[in-house]
Amino acid sequence: MPKALQLTLAAVSAVVFGPFNAALASSVTNADIARKTICWSNGAISAFHKDGTYDCNRCGHGTWRLEGDTLTENGDAGPVVWKITKVGRTLHESLQTAPYEVHWTYCK
């Protein structure tokens, strides 16, 4: 398939299905995160503990709290604030302070 056609199909898919995916997004709850091990799209693995602490293979140890669609992680490098939603069993996070987005799934 020619590269130009691939790019055109990708753009059309984003326009057609983007709003549909956003409509399927739902709120994340503590039950979605607490006592779960999460595999990030960037290769990080985080364990979110019921007591509000977490351990991450890339970012160390810290605390977490979820308030509405905002997840705050306070770790060794300081606080990081994410906007978080879920579609099915996939969690989507984007930084509030920078154009960075990751996707999570539950580790097996």
In short:
The protein is α+β, with helices and mostly antiparallel strands.
The biggest beta sheet is recorded as: 8 strands, antiparallel, barrel
The number of helical runs is 2
* H/E element order: HHEEEEEEEE
Report how far apart the termini are: 35 Å
Portion of residues in beta strands equals over 45%
Give the beta-strand count. Answer: 8
Mean pLDDT: 77
Give a verbal description of the structure.
The radius of gyration is 16 Å and the shape is globular. A hairpin with a 5-residue loop joins strand 7 (90-95) and strand 8 (101-106). With 108 residues, it is an alpha+beta fold. It has helices spanning 3-24, 30-33; strands spanning 36-40, 45-48, 53-56, 60-67, 70-75, 78-87, 90-95, 101-106. The model is unreliable at 3-22 (pLDDT under 50). Strands 1-2-3-4-5-6-7-8 form an 8-stranded antiparallel barrel. The protein is built from 2 helices and 8 strands; from the N terminus they run H-H-E-E-E-E-E-E-E-E. Helices cover 24% and strands 45% of the residues.
Fold topology:
Blueprint: H1 3-24, H2 30-33, E1 36-40, E2 45-48, E3 53-56, E4 60-67, E5 70-75, E6 78-87, E7 90-95, E8 101-106
Antiparallel strand pairs: 1-2, 1-8, 2-3, 3-4, 4-5, 5-6, 6-7, 7-8
List keywords for this structure.
alpha+beta, eight-stranded antiparallel beta barrel, globular, disordered N terminus
